[in-house]
Write a structure and sequence with these properties.
The chain has 252 residues and is of the alpha/beta class. It has one domain: Rossmann fold (3-Layer(aba) Sandwich), CATH 3.40.50. It has 9 helices and 7 strands, in the order H-E-E-H-E-H-E-H-E-H-H-H-E-H-E-H. The chain is globular and about 50 Å long. InterPro entries: AB_hydrolase_fold (IPR029058), TEII (IPR012223), TesA-like (IPR020802), Thioesterase (IPR001031).
């Protein structure tokens, strides 16, 4: 992959494994960045080429305009990922990242590139409906939401300068996900949904409704925990992903 394909701008490889038999592409949550998946990359580096997406408006891309529309973001990401499909590719998206991964998978399947599997974590199905307006709150309201979800480093929440840097991207991401859908579209690739049993953003029945969004296999796995269950349950999640990656290699 070269500078021309845009991967140097969008993708972060913390532990490159160019000869690995399978690739994993990770999609961050609202307000999240590629570095959230550094531990995942470290844990899987022995047999998988892990990439994490870096959205505009954060960390080293903080001077770029934020994108507040899931469809527009998916349109920009899909062509960047096309060169990765020289071997099996698995997507993992958490929260907003789950919906974005789904939309990117739809676009890539239309181009003839089907992911081996899509992990949709911590997010209800695209066809479900909830009235949410976090993106319309003032800064204090958004900070309160961040604290409630426990998805942001406590150091950031206590540092006013860091907060000022993070809030525009977070507001934009909330606008993107809260104005998305509902949609009843499908992908052909299998979908595995991971969710916490105490997630205020996603009930187990809402997670189950992802079943209607694939014409392939469907699996639901429930973990103990809230919206960011995957941090305290990291070992279990990594084991689940590792097993799926082995399956993708076998099928591929």
């Amino acid at each position: 992959m070269t500078v021309a394909d845009g991967s140097d701008l969008w993708l972060r490889r913390f532990h490159p494994a160019a000869d690995a038999p399978v690739r994993l592409v990770c999609f961050p949550h609202a307000g999240g960045s590629a570095s959230f998946y550094f531990p995942v990359s470290a844990a899987l580096a022995d047999g998988c080429d892990v990439s994490a997406l870096q959205y505009p408006g954060r960390q080293d891309r903080r001077h770029e305009p934020n994108v507040d529309d899931i469809g527009v973001l998916a349109d920009r990401i899909a062509p960047v990922l096309e060169p990765l499909f020289d071997r099996p590719v698995v997507f993992f998206g958490h929260s907003m990242g789950a919906v974005l991964a789904f939309e990117v998978a739809r676009r890539l399947e239309a181009r003839g590139h089907e992911p081996a599997l899509l992990f949709a974590s911590g997010r209800r199905a695209p066809s479900t409906v909830r009235e949410e307006n976090v993106h319309q709150r003032d800064d204090d309201g958004i900070v309160a939401e961040m604290k409630a979800m426990s998805g942001t480093d406590a150091q950031v929440l206590g540092d006013e300068e860091l907060l000022r840097m993070v809030l525009p991207a977070l507001r934009s991401d909330y606008r993107a996900i809260e104005t998305y859908g509902p949609v009843d579209t499908t992908v052909a690739c299998p979908i595995t949904v991971l969710t916490g049993d105490d997630d205020p953003k996603t009930t187990v029945p809402e997670a189950e409704q992802w079943r209607a969004h694939t014409t392939g296999a469907f699996h639901l796995q429930v973990f103990r925990g809230g919206h960011f269950y995957l941090s305290p349950r990291a070992a279990e999640v990594i084991a689940t992903v590792r097993e799926a990656l082995r399956g993708a290699v076998a099928v591929g």
